[in-house]
Amino acid sequence: MKQDMIVVLDLGSEENPKIAREIRALGVYSEIHPHDITKAELDALPNVKGIILNGGKNRVVDGVEIDVSDEVYAHSVPVLSVDHKGSAPWPQDDDARTEKLRAFLFDTCGVQANWNMENFIADQIELIRRQVGDGKVLLALSGGVDSSVVAALLIKAIGKQLTCVHVNHGLLRQGEPEQVVRVFGDEMDANLVYVDAVDRFLDKLAGVSDPEQKRKIIGAEFIRVFEEEARKLSGVSFLGQGTIYPDIIESGTKTVKVVKSHHNVGGLPEDLDFELVEPLKMLFKDEVRACGAALGLPDSMVYRQPFPGPGLGVRCLGAITRDRLEAVRASDAILREEFAAAGLEGKVWQYFTVVPDIKSVGVREGKRADEWPVILRAVNTIDAMTAEIEEIPYALLKKITARITSEVPGVNRVLYDLTPKPTGTIEWE
């Protein structure tokens, strides 16, 4: 590793990710490790220049007081405590916190501000080549940000030793499968297996209206398709994954409770026949996007909006039908096009359309028309735990309404969802 490192030891604080991100924002690489790390484990980490002990309000977890070992306190690199037991009371003001961190990093530890994407990519290429050797890697390429960046990084590191499998389950947005094929198959010359499984998925989903059941069917069927494709390949011993740092942190540590379990962290079968390759596992989401941009991926992939795992399957409310699914896809494409033209792309966190399984009476060409409504949703959020509604100019809403009702078959109304989270959730299902 070319970067200097600051190690944050977790003593029960919920602010570990915040401190790690603040350190990285200053151009210094940081990692979070458990409080009971041994001296040997600490010494094995590359280029450690300083240690921060972060216990938050206290160092008590499940009624037991915890601390690091005496060897950590006596380590050859500087150690800073930032909780009530430490030598440095931690400022609440962000500017003061940054200045205290800056003084510790650059004055006390003497680190270099060499944490950047170019160095990260160079390090990961070296590590991937060392891990994989002349082996072969298989990657499920959904077209989402994380899997796309992993694919680009693996292609740069090992080229044709990587095989990407893109499963089109029919629930992606307009143009996304074609973009995956164009970018990775044509432009990046990857070994790309494209699987058209649209009929297979939609047949499985026919008549299923419960959202959780839809999610389970989509997830299970995806695994089956991927496993079938994997069996067709020979000599593959590595599995690439788009695991990122929040996945690991949210899945729980020795001192912090689980926020939510992630399938790619501890959820894989014990008898997995593959060794995992996870080059992004120490990156936060914004850093993943920066990595993708540095690797030359198009902005439409790098800055792709958050998209649910079941895709449009949970925006076609109730039992999915092919015609209503196409209404979701077409109306969503119009919304995204008009937001981009109005300069809202990148300024609004997430925006999409929903088509419920109801019809209302309308008039088309002078005749009664029983057709669906389309619901528009646009929200802003920092952490997706709460969300506020974007105030869309009325003229833009009128333009989007006119386009959707004239261009999308079977739609005669457009509604705008004004509900924040809470009480609503961001998605409808």
TrEMBL record:
Q: Which CDD domains match?
A: GMP_synthase_C
Q: According to the UniProt record, what class of enzyme is this?
A: ligase
Q: Taking every annotated instance into account, which residue ranges of this chain make up the domain GMPS ATP-PPase?
A: 115-304
The UniProt entry's GO CC annotations, sorted and at most eight, read: cytosol
Q: Which terms are listed as keywords in the entry? A: ATP-binding, Glutamine amidotransferase, GMP biosynthesis, Ligase, Nucleotide-binding, Purine biosynthesis
Q: What is its EC number?
A: 6.3.5.2
Task: Output the PROSITE patterns linked to this UniProt entry.
Answer: GMPS_ATP_PPASE (PS51553)
Q: Which Pfam families match?
A: GMP_synt_C (PF00958), NAD_synthase (PF02540)
Statement: the UniProt record of this protein carries the keyword Nucleus: no
What is its pathway? Purine metabolism; GMP biosynthesis; GMP from XMP (L-Gln route): step 1/1
Does the keyword Transcription regulation feature in the UniProt annotation?
no
Listed GO MF terms: ATP binding; GMP synthase activity
Sites where the protein binds ATP: S142, G143, G144, V145, D146, S147, S148
InterPro entries given for it? Answer: Class_I_gatase-like, GMP_synth_C, GMPS_ATP_PPase_dom, NAD/GMP_synthase, Rossmann-like_a/b/a_fold
Q: What does this protein do?
A: Catalyzes the synthesis of GMP from XMP.
Q: NCBIfam families of this UniProt entry?
A: guaA_Cterm, PRK00074.1
Q: State the name under which the record lists this protein.
A: GMP synthase (glutamine-hydrolyzing)
Species for this entry: Merdimmobilis hominis
